[in-house]
Amino acid sequence: MQSLNSLKQGFETLLEVITATIVAALTILIVCGTVFRYAGSPLVWYDEIASVGLVWMTYFGSALAALKGAHIGFPGIVNALPPNLRVLATVFSEICVFLFFGLMAYAGMEVLIILEGMTLVTLPGVSVQLTQAIIPLGAVLFMLAEALRLPEVMRDARGDGFVDHEVREALAELEADPEDSPGRKHPHDASRLGEVS
User: Fold this and answer.
1) Is the dihedral angle over the CA atoms 18, 23, 27, 33 positive or is it negative?
2) Is 156 part of any domain?
3) Out of 35, 37, 50, 145, which could bridge 67 as a Cys pair, Cβ 3.0 to 4.6 Å?
4) Virtual CA dihedral for 155, 160, 165, 170, nearest 10 degrees?
5) What is the domain count for the chain?
6) By 3-state DSSP, what share of the chain in percent is helix, strand and coil, each rounded to 5?
């Protein structure tokens, strides 16, 4: 279980670094594109590359959100079910996710075959296959993220139910350093208050 957690943490770090790098590159690209356009020398390729970068960022960010359990769900409905039905609903949900993204990966590969030989309009040296490779890659990354999170999901389904990922992260921070939590009284404060009153 420890190796799974370290694998999950490593995958999360990798996705965060890639996503942040794409965001930084897009920011620089858009600022440069705006400056060059304002100066009267627009970069002809900037719009096309920015669009491709946005798509890549979306797929990597989506896999990162899946790994953290941050996609929109209905935990309240699932939590209201009895434990055996909660497990059944969770298994059904995970099967649907894997089927959808498996189909997306397959369809993405088919699209790449169709796009063979095509290049970007503004950058003829860049293959459209390369830019669209994120479709099957993103689907595989999403399935990997779901697979790494699956033991935790099943444990929650069998246990007391699902807790929102933001609440879980906040609770983990509180447990890690209770001294820094807002509104938290230090044990010595109670004794001091007792002395004063």
Assistant:
1) positive
2) yes
3) 145
4) -120
5) 1
6) 80, 0, 20
Determine the structural domain holding residue 7 and report its residue range. 2-163
- Pair of tokens at residue 94: 């995970």
Asked if 19 and 64 count as a contact pair (C-beta separation under 8 A), the reply is yes
Verdict on whether the full-model pTM lies above 0.70: yes
In a domain, 123, yes or no: yes
Residue 121 — left, alpha, or beta (φ > 0 → left; ψ -120 to 50 → alpha)?
A: alpha
Residues 6+ apart with CB under 8 A from 125: 119
- Is the CB of residue 94 less than 8 Å from the CB of residue 150? yes
User: Looking at the domain assignment, is residue 183 inside a domain?
Assistant: no
Q: What is d(CA 88, CA 77) in angstroms, rounded to the nearest whole number?
A: 13
pLDDT tens digits, one per residue of 5-32:
899 999 999 999 999 999 999 999 999 9
Q: Which residues pair with 127 in a beta bridge?
A: 119
**Token pair listed for 195:** 């002395």
Query: How far is Cα 138 from Cα 56, in angstroms, rounded to an integer?
Result: 8
Q: How many CB atoms lie within 10 A of CB 195?
A: 7
Q: Answer whether residue 180 is part of any domain.
A: no
Rounded Cα–Cα distance for residues 114 and 40 (Å):
37
